[in-house]
Structures are given as structure tokens and as C-alpha cells.
Amino acid sequence: MTHHELTVKSIVYGRKRFLKRWPALLEVSELTKSYHEVRGVKNLSFQVESGTALGLLGPNGAGKTTTIRLLMGFMKPDLGSASIWGLDCWRDRAELKEITGYLPGELHFMEQFTGQEFLDLIEGMHGAPQTIRKKQRDLLRALELDPKQRIRKMSKGMKQKLGIIAALMLDAPVLILDEPSSGLDPLMQKTFIELILEEKKREKTIFMSSHHFAEIERTCERVGMIRDGELLAIQDITLLKQKERQTFDIEVSGEEDAELLRQSGLTLYPLDQLKFTIQVTGEQELLWKTLAQIRVRRFQQGSLELEEAFMHYYHSSLRGDNT
Ligand SMILES: Nc1ncnc2c1ncn2[C@@H]1O[C@H](COP(=O)(O)OP(=O)(O)OP(=O)(O)O)[C@@H](O)[C@H]1O
Ligand SMILES: [Mg+2]
């Protein structure tokens, strides 16, 4: 057995041990792929540490699915490479399938199957230990999906749930998810976030694409922004939040409340005698302490600066500028 085969074996059969020895689990280096002259992705380099999640955000056609398909070894990169646990995403794609739970951006099911028959098929392909069964049942319950229904008769959201269950039930240490919450109603999007947080407790390494900043903010340590096939930036979510500024509009009940507010140490912009805009950076403890001490007639939270920044970033791509 070659050294390389040995590595693969120890990943598949002893992944816990391996995880500790390999800090950068997912490593992408100068990854480039174009589709017959059409730009796909260009010169992507990033890493995802073991047990953390990276969310990829970007407008339609930015290159998210292309990146994910390269990670899954569906295409050979033109240049550069991607690897997971030191396994090359293209060369070692068969081995990587064993350790990866994958949700495609566009689901193509065998429509004549029932949900259960489809899950049984996936289960069979992976040796079906008892734990898969249990996890499958838990996921079906959490997402409120009836597996007896034929896939042909399922709605878009129901099919998406089935795809999520198939990706998560294997309990794979790596999850690669292409727009996992698309088609889910708001309640189910919340449930999905809870499922991902549950996976994170089990030290899963997650790479997912999304159009919802809030979803990435809640589940990922880092967010990457891709546009026109290029990675613009990778940001640490905790750092972003610490630096985040938020505004609140407030109207207090009387002059004494206004005076308390002025003395609170909060950054204030007076609008008139009793109305103010409050600006808070990072920690909001002082704001809430102050609010507890004064009489408030009206209080309104301004939009989050972060979310606005991301919207701006989407818009500038529409205008085609690079700011
Ligand atoms: N099979 C293909 N053949 C030719 N061009 C393709 C193919 N797949 C993607 N592209 C092109 O590559 C670029 C990136 O597409 P990709 O599907 O990766 O975007 P995306 O970020 O996933 O977008 P969306 O948010 O719409 O899913 C686009 O310009 C697209 O037209
Ligand atoms: Mg896509």
C-alpha cells in the first residue's frame, strides 16, 4: 500500500484521529476554471479550518456553484487545486465522497421514487449503519417531511428538505451545501439554521453558499464574498460584528428622560427636544442598561450596517463597477 492510500484509509476509518492532526481541513489554492472562454472562477485561494464553517455569498452567476462543483470533484480545475484533509478534490474524488455530505444547488431526483425509497438508496450506498436510520428519522421529524410521498408530487421546498436530509443523515465530517435554504419557508429556514448549529457542535467542517447574509452570520465563523468569479474578501464574522455600527431612533417621554439619556455616555444625535438617534458600535450593553432607566415613548431599530453593506455589494455588481 502506498503512503497515499494509507492516508486515505486513515481518513475514512479513523477520521477523528486525523482531524486533530490536520488544522487546515479544506484548502483551496489558486483555483481556476472557465467554461469554454466563459468565466467560471478565477484564482480562488482560501482555507477552512477543521470544525469551522465558511459561508460563500455572492450574486447570481458569481461562481458559487462552480466553486462547490470543483470541491466535489465534478470537474477538473484548469489551474490550481483544492484539497480536503490533504486529499485532492479532483484526483481523490471517490474517497472524498465517503467523508462528504453534499447538497447540490439544483436537485435532480428520480421522480418515480418515494422520499423514503430515495433515502434508502443513498443509505445503501453508504453501508447503512444504524446511526444513519436514527439521524434520518430525527431529520424527517425536524423538517416535517412525509417520506412516503412520491418525489414527483413533492413541492420545491419538500424536495429541498429531502436533499438536506440526504446530505446530513450520513453524519459525514465535511458538509458542502449549495444554497441549502433556498425554497424553504421562513420557519423552515430557522429550523435549518438550528440543524446546522447542531452539526457544528459535532465539529463538522462546513462550506456553504447562500444569498442570505443572516443565515451565514448565524452559522459560520467566516464569510467569503465572491463576484465575477473572484473572491473579493474573506471576513471573520465575530470581528465584523464587533466593528458593526447600529443606529436606533428613540423618543423619550419627558425632559428628565432626555437628560438621563444625555448623561448616559451613549453617542447621541439630537433630532429635537425629546427625539434622538443613538449610535452603538459593537457591544450594546450600555444601550439596554440606559433604556431600562428611562421612559420611552417610541423606539425603532435602524437597519444593520452589515446587512446594508452586503446589499450595497450586491448592487455594485449589477452596475458593473468594482467599488
Ligand atoms: N455548465 C456551464 N457552462 C457554461 N458556463 C457556465 C456553466 N455553469 C456556470 N457557468 C457560468 O459560470 C459563471 C458562474 O456560475 P455559477 O453557477 O458558479 O454561479 P453561482 O454563483 O452559483 O450563481 P447562482 O447564485 O445563480 O446560483 C456564470 O457566468 C455562468 O454563466
Ligand atoms: Mg449557484
From TrEMBL:
Nucleotide-binding recorded as keyword: yes
One GO molecular-function entry: ATP hydrolysis activity
One family name in Pfam for this protein: ABC_tran
SUPFAM superfamilies in alphabetical order: P-loop containing nucleoside triphosphate hydrolases (SSF52540)
Matches recorded under InterPro entries: AAA+_ATPase, ABC_transporter-like_ATP-bd, ABC_transporter-like_CS, ABC_transporter_ATP-binding, P-loop_NTPase
Domain ABC transporter residue range list: 26-253
Keywords: ATP-binding, Nucleotide-binding, Transport
Entry's family note: Belongs to the ABC transporter superfamily.
Protein name from the UniProt record: ABC transporter domain-containing protein
